Amino acid sequence: MLIFLLAYLGGVLTIFSPCVLPVLPFVFARSGQSFRRAGLPILLGMAATFTVLASLAAVGGAWLVEINQYGRYAAMALLLLMGVALIFPALSEWLMRPFVALGGRLQQHADQKNSLTGSLLLGVAVGFLWAPCAGPILGLVLAGAALKGANLYSALLLLVFAAGAATSLAVALLAGGRILSLMKRGLGAEEWVRRGLGVAVVAGVVVIALGWDTRFLSQFSLLSTASTEQQLIDKLAQQSDAAVVAETRKAPPLNGATQWLNSQPLSNEMLRGKVVLVDFWTYSCINCLRTLPYLKAWDEKYRAQGLLIIGVHAPEFAFEKDLNNVAQAVRDLGIHYPVAIDNQYAIWNAYQNQYWPAHYLIDAQGRIRHQHFGEGAYQETEQMIQTLLKEANQGLALNGKLVQVAGIGATAEAANMPKSPETYVGYSRQENLASPEPIIPDQTSRYSAPRLLQPDQWALSGMWQVSKESALLTTVGGAINYHFRGRDLHLVLGARNGKPVRFKVTLDGKAPGNDHGMDTDAQGNGVIHEQRLYQLIRQSGQIKDRIFRIEFLDTEAEAFAFTFG
Fold it and tell me: 35 with 161, same domain?
């Protein structure tokens, strides 16, 4: 039912989509007629045509695209004739004569273009034009239909989308009809209104024929629904957490781990009878670090009751593949549950995972029963832990209370406020770099910082060698500036030669004082000792946009990514 609701809401949103604008004149061409005999047949024809064409597109080959294109040509020709007939009443009968001959009772004179049959035919024609109007939700609907194949489910899914669009268009049509009726009664402008609609129809056909509807309308539209639709998709996806798939999916094996920490190698057979929480993480990931207080608290509270947490460490940066680095991080972070080293992403791929962090809850029979991606949903996850523990042990008594935790430093929960985006320093995922010099990949080059940085912009200054995932400072005195927003600023840092690298940070050109992070002092001084995430700023007073600068007092400093909290 969730995907059907999503499809219907996506259809409703198409009334605001730029690609529907060329269709509106055709729909409103008969707004002055009875909604039951004119407007409703148009919408029914549109919905039926769209459902058929979209169903074919979901399961067919490239030849169906050609058929759809021929249908569009025929529809544009028909609509052009109707538009001309609206503009020139004297020519209506002559222009409509071929359709009268073919349809028999479609019309006897120009006014018969408003008949029930003619309205239905108009709706079918408009359906050919509207079918390619696709946004993120329609893309999801078509993808789902294609996966399911040509069956009743696919057709219903597409029909629900069409019904949503028809609903919003019906509301607009009813309101538009009343407005046009008032205009005609108040101004006696029936002739001009009819001709104006004809001009709009002809103009719409020209726009579509020239391809301006898809190339330019989205640029001039005041409202685009792509982001709204994507937010709707994301929100519903988070709520569902792929529950339907998870309920029946067997947990993949763990035998792809290259090493294990805090445990001997574990297999799925060894885990039967236990409730298992698999946590995909990597030690420099700020989102992963913020979930750790809950994981550690659950491990302490429920381990004796049968819960086993397994951290699957899947590296993001090359230095995170070093077993010594991971082992040091596990010790520093106080992690006592088993950690599987997944340097080859064997377990990651077996789970078809895409996120850091990602939590998969497995019941005592080895089935994935719950999953969550990213931070948050701690209450729901813990309640599911309790449910699965009770299923595994019918006599187990749990009081239902949930853990209360508060992280410190980088593990503290993020502030609820707008924040700058995660920013990668390496050129493979680099965004918002404001240094005027072009990046020269993998070669040492001089970069500079502009006098002013816009919000979320950053800049290098000094001699840097920028690689795919990092930037390496080759001379003393290099710096990075960032105009950031957020309470916390973190930077993943390392030292290429393994020696300590001193650095100094400022906020708005001054020492951070009480706004310093866990890895700096009030004067902004800090030292890189190992490759990890460093918390450099935590604003303690009024949180506002700031200009951050970090200057390195030694060479061989390596910067990977900024994150904010």
Answer: yes
